[in-house]
Design goal:
Blueprint lengths: L1 H5 L6 E4 L7 H13 L3 E2 L16 E3 L8 H6 L3 E3 L2 H9 L20 E4 L4 H13 L3 E2 L9 E3 L6 H9 L4 E3 L1 H10 L52 H6 L8 E4 L7 H13 L3 E2 L8 E3 L6 H8 L3 E3 L1 H10 L26 E5 L3 H14 L2 E2 L9 E4 L5 H8 L3 E3 L1 H10 L30 H9 L4 E2 L36 H7 L34 E2 L4 H6 L11 H26 L23 H16 L8 H5 L18 E5 L9 H13 L2 E4 L7 E3 L7 H6 L5 E3 L1 H10 L13 H7 L3 H11 L8 E5 L6 H10 L3 E5 L35 E5 L4 H16 L3 E5 L1 H10 L25
Helix pairs in contact: 5-7, 5-18, 12-14
Length: 905
């Protein structure tokens, strides 16, 4: 057995890269462990670079910031963290290298999770998500476990952690849910048991910002003063420090617009870092430019050179460590005309400070949007780290889109404005300041390639007749617009001579370019002049060229070996990814709903209007004592609305999406909830918590809950709790007609008939409040979000009202004159509501009453009639599915008990 252990790492040829996470002591320890068990160690070169990379099978490092990383992937070399060595040693076999990757996109790579008495569905989702994103799962509680996931402390694993004072953290499942929703690793602090902050009484106190490690030297695409760089003082220091440009040739683009003095400084820095300068893009290893255009940028990109900007260059010199310019958005050349979709957008920031704020300001400007320090009504977006601020309140009142910084980062990274319907961009975890994850989004090089340099190669012979032919490999093509970059301060090293360089005429022809005497050129005795090959391909495509050319060029490939490796890895990950993806898409994430693995997303049958009406007429006939033939399930589904059968091994197609309200059978009993929901799913009933998905509403009686009221807008079948009891007891679909909800007392009290309301809802098609803007006070009973959801599902817009001016848009359109609304407006009582009436839903607290007169004054200025109403007005409207008016819903100061005359003015 000992002999087998001695050969554990046989065949492994490795090196160790030291850095912030691996010091020299740990390096020696890793080398000792590996070599004693059969591995072969290859020392690095004196400059710290990797010696003969093709001989390696493994590179052990704490990050991917080293020059040979891309080449290592091309040669199928495993890049792993030290945990791979420890895990393999403990298990007595070489573990899967992928789950020990230092790639930051695998943000659970440091997580080893163990679950403590969770419902099976939640447990499966957490394990799948963790494995898919680089983490590990351990069923038993071992010393390597970093996180125990539990709902409370009343289980053996949590007691063991406390008794032995283990270093692992005990977190709620909500932490995984929020991490997966954001696609980033957030701080566990607010989720830690036994007293998680997110479960405490809600507080309006702002969440304090933490550090932003993702912004190391990447707050701006415009570099400041060049760094002072001193070479190592001894050979031993040289061994520990990386000469970042050792044996590399660097090309500086002319679009940097630097003066001669700064050019000399940059040349000196490259030389001290072990590199040399070139003007030949074919010879260069590193291209440094400011914009994503020009012949050299395209050629360097297509040849897969390292492409960065001057800010990246300074950062590499300062740290004396290689970084990937694609890892930081502002370390890569910027788009000259901004990102498509951002022109005309006015963006403001809230709750970001320090480097995070500077970074986001610069990102807004580089994307092409207008950044405003103060927010006004003409702003289109507010980017915030959390929702506790005056700007957030004002944005709600002014109906300005509120998003987190991930929307801006993803838009910039993907070269297009992203949709705001993606909940990832509007998710704000409670008690978390999202500034802690600023700067972690990398450039999506595939999107950049597609837009800027993938297609449309042009050759010199393709140039227009009579035009000057630029040298294909001597500096970047000067852009037509050579004025200083808009909104970007000049470099501190710039002089008046720099301005004369910017304003200089276009370069001369190839053999007479006066600018070739720049300090960016190598020394005269070493300079190489390359003959222009007329007819050779010179990649000169820019976005404007891509729109006019029909020629295409396939993007470069990394070779057959890397493709085969990727295919093998994909097959190895297949089960994990499929399970994670299914769990991620379901409603409620990984913390609500038990055994979701048995609930595939399937299309549900469409219930036709005729079938719905037939079922409701059946109920009316029953009330009158008429004999009506039994309606079969086929008739209920409707001939045109037959279920689309989805091939699946996990259960039958979904026949009804049921929303349950007013029943507490699952309250506090997640295990029972998981079991019973799985039973329902097995007979074709899918449980939802979203009224917008409801096709079957189950309640004990007619209720005034948010779920019940909002779901009526979808015209669902409404059944009593007996339907749910019967389905669980018999494990078959009960007959709808036997369990239709009947509550005559509530109908009389509330003043509407359920059947008529559902028929009107079917006709309204969620357009009852289409075109309406309804204002709501912050302290209204039930909360703003409750009424916002009811208004939204009925087609209207809800705005929080705090007394600010210019929030009322003006009179609504004339309902009778809008042909697009169709026949659904008929018999709605719309004639009782004038188009110029604007509604404020309010309670009667003193701070709410004070707003009433302000609302009336604002309405007068917009030629509108202010209607200040109780919440009952909206509830009646939504439940009856018709708009009508009664004075009993009006609110006036004189009706408020104890209100003093003039207090609200």
């Amino acid at each position: 057995m000992a002999g087998a252990d001695d050969l554990l790492f046989s065949g492994v040829t490795f090196t160790v890269l030291t850095g912030p996470t691996i010091d020299s002591v740990q390096e020696e320890r890793l080398i000792q462990i590996l070599t004693h068990k059969g591995a072969t160690f290859i020392p690095r070169r004196e400059d710290g670079s990797i010696n003969n990379i093709t001989r390696h099978t493994h590179i052990i490092t704490g990050d991917i910031e080293f020059p040979e990383y891309s080449k290592a992937l091309d040669y199928n070399i495993h890049v792993v963290r030290p945990s791979w060595v420890e895990s393999s040693s403990e298990k007595g076999r070489q573990t899967q290298a992928r789950q020990h990757s230092p790639d930051p996109s695998m943000f659970f790579r440091e997580v080893i999770v163990s679950c403590a008495e969770l419902p099976e569905g939640d447990k499966d989702a957490i394990i799948a998500g963790t494995l898919a994103l680089g983490g590990l799962y351990s069923a038993p509680l071992t010393k390597l476990v970093t996180h125990v996931v539990a709902l409370d402390m009343h289980n053996d694993k949590c007691r063991t952690v406390q008794a032995k004072d283990l270093a692992c953290k005990i977190v709620l499942p909500h932490w995984f849910d929020d991490c997966l929703k954001l696609g980033k690793l957030i701080n566990e602090g607010p989720y830690l048991l036994p007293d998680p902050e997110i479960l405490r009484a809600s507080s309006d106190e702002p969440v304090r910002a933490r550090s932003t490690p993702g912004l190391d030297g990447a707050t701006s695409a415009v570099a400041g003063a060049p760094p002072a760089y001193n070479p190592p003082i001894s050979p031993s220091d040289s061994r520990k420090q990386l000469a970042v440009f050792k044996d590399k040739k660097v090309l500086f683009s002319k679009d940097l617009n630097v003066n001669d003095h700064l050019a000399k400084t940059l040349r000196h820095l490259v030389s001290q870092a072990g590199g040399s300068l070139t003007t030949d893009v074919e010879e260069c290893d590193v291209y440094i430019g400011h914009y994503r255009d020009g012949m050299d940028y395209v050629a360097a990109s297509q040849a897969e050179k390292t492409v960065g900007n001057l800010s990246w260059f300074y950062n590499v010199i300062n740290r004396n460590k290689w970084t990937n310019p694609l890892g930081k958005l502002l370390h890569y050349p910027v788009p000259r005309d901004g990102i498509p979709g951002f022109k005309g957008k006015r963006i403001s920031l809230s709750n970001y400070s320090g480097e995070a704020r500077i970074y986001l300001e610069n990102l807004c400007k580089e994307a092409g949007a207008d950044f405003t320090k103060t927010m006004k009504q003409d702003n289109t977006h507010l980017i915030t780290a959390h929702t506790h601020s005056e700007k957030c309140d004002a944005a709600q009142e002014w109906n300005i889109d509120i998003v987190n910084h991930l929307w801006l980062e993803e838009s910039y990274a993907k070269c297009a404005a992203q949709s705001l319907t993606n909940k990832r961009f509007t998710h704000f975890p409670p008690r978390t300041n999202l500034s802690e994850i600023v700067g972690q989004t990398p450039i999506d090089i595939n999107k950049v390639r597609k837009l800027y340099f993938a297609n449309g190669e042009k050759t010199i012979k393709d140039a227009e007749p009579g035009t000057k032919t630029p040298h294909p490999f001597r500096g970047a093509v000067r852009a037509p617009d050579t004025s200083p970059r808009k909104g970007v301060p000049a470099s501190s090293a710039a002089t008046s001579k720099a301005k004369s360089f910017v304003d200089a005429p276009e370069p001369m022809d190839v053999d007479g370019d006066e600018n070739d005497s720049s300090e960016f050129l190598p020394a005269p005795q070493t300079a190489k002049r390359r003959k222009t090959r007329v007819g050779s391909d010179a990649a000169m495509a820019t976005p404007s060229m891509l729109r006019t050319t029909g020629r295409e060029n396939s993007p470069p490939t990394t070779g057959r070996a890397s493709k085969e490796k990727a295919l093998r890895d994909l097959h190895a990950l297949k089960d994990d990814v499929l399970l994670y993806d299914r769990e991620r898409k379901r409603k409620g994430g990984v913390v609500h709903g038990g055994r979701r693995t048995a609930e595939p997303e399937e299309e549900q049958p469409v219930v036709t209007k005729a079938a719905a009406t037939k079922t409701r007429n059946k109920r009316k006939s029953d009330d009158m004592g008429d004999d009506t033939a039994e309606i079969s399930e086929t008739e209920i589904a409707g001939v045109k609305g037959k279920a689309k059968k989805v091939k699946t091994d996990n259960g039958p197609p979904v026949k009804f999406t049921m929303l349950v309200t007013g029943d507490e059978r699952w309250l506090g009993n997640m295990k029972r909830e998981a079991i019973e929901k799985a039973k329902l799913r097995a007979i074709g009933i899918k449980i939802t918590t979203e009224p917008s998905e409801c096709s079957l509403l189950c309640a004990p009686r007619i209720l005034r809950t948010k779920k019940f009221i909002a779901a009526l807008a979808k015209s669902p079948f409404v059944v009593n709790i007996g339907y749910l009891d019967s389905a669980l007891a018999n494990e078959t679909l009960p007959d709808l007609d036997d369990h239709l909800l009947k509550d005559g007392e509530a109908e009389q009290r509330l003043g509407f008939l359920m059947d008529d309301a559902l028929d009107r809802a079917d006709m309204n098609k969620n357009h009852l409040l289409h075109g309406w803007t309804i204002f709501i006070t912050e302290k209204v009973p039930g909360g703003f979000e409750t009424y916002k959801e009811i208004i939204s599902i009925n087609g209207g817009t809800a705005i929080l009202y705090k007394g600010r001016s210019n929030v009322i848009p003006g009179p609504r359109y004339n309902p009778g004159g809008d042909r697009d609304r169709g026949s659904w407006v008929q018999n709605q009582g719309l004639e009782e509501i004038e188009p110029n009436q604007v509604f404020l839903i309010s309670g009667t607290l003193p701070e709410e009453v004070k707003l009433w007169q302000k609302f009336r004054d604002e309405a007068d200025r917009k030629d509108c009639d202010a209607m200040i109403v109780k919440t009952d007005w909206l509830i009646n409207l939504a439940m009856s599915q018709q708009i009508e008016w009664d004075e009993k819903w009006a609110l006036k100061e004189s009706l408020v008990p104890g209100y003093e005359e003039g207090r609200g003015k």
